[in-house]
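Hi R.,

Here are the chain sequences for the assembly we discussed:
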Amino acid sequence: MATTTASINITSGDIMDNNVSISSTATLTTARTTTGLTETTGLARRKFAAASLVDLITAVNTEVTQDKAAKVYIRNTNSYNAEQYVTVGIGNSSGTPLYMGRLYGGDWMFFPWDAVLTDAGGRAESLTDGGGDHASNEDITVTPSHADPVVLEYMVFFE
Amino acid sequence: MATTTAAITISSADLLTDPLSLSTTSTLYKAGTSTGLEQVKMGKQKLATGTNFKLLLATTAGANSASKAYIINKSTDATYYITVSVSTQVIGKLYAGDWMFIPWEQAATSQDLYARAYVGENTVEWASFHEGETLTS
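And here is the predicted structure of the full complex:
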């Protein structure tokens, strides 16, 4: 088993009268165990140069087991630009994803991913056929706000 | 203006053949500006099983914003977990000790953040760094 940790440190000396300091470290484990996750997509890097909705990570291609433990890291590597961001969603680029939020240049996010497969044949059928057409799979989508190039780095840890 | 930073470090000595070490820090700005987010809410709750609780409420002021949400499952029993949802869409499961940090656009006021406990009573802590909210009534 592998040991992978993810630490966060949020600090501010002036958002309140008193300092804000939030620190935590999670050890990434398989679902409902203390066994470490052993699989990863590795760190990937993609450039987007169109203001259109696309799949960033497809549940099928990552071979993530749905409803298990999977963690996603995404970072917008661009320099901060107040007018340029990507909107990250869960769903499919051919449908209407649920938009979580905006990643501006320099922003990152880290979240658990259910990665449920639900293709045109429904969830039950997609469990057996692999959700190949991923009509309603819970993919991770991005929508750049501008056609100006934006580069994202991302990585999935899964079981 | 306030300056708030969020840093992440992901590391492993044995997940890959070579050590993994990934670190980055971002400064939390208001949407469309270089001004830091100026508002924060924090809390800690115990969640009983069986109900999908609204953990953080989306607001009109939060629409199309650059708000950030942090949630951690403080449970210590590895079998315990919570699901976290935006509106009706489950994002994923936070197992004991897991945390998440996401931008939270609140494009619609229905985009509340929900948490639901499984197996037993889970304890969660959360924080929202946001902008533009004024309590009027």
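Chain B touches chain A through 66 residues (CB under 8 Å). The radius of gyration of chain B is 16 Å.

Let me know if anything looks off.

Best,
T.
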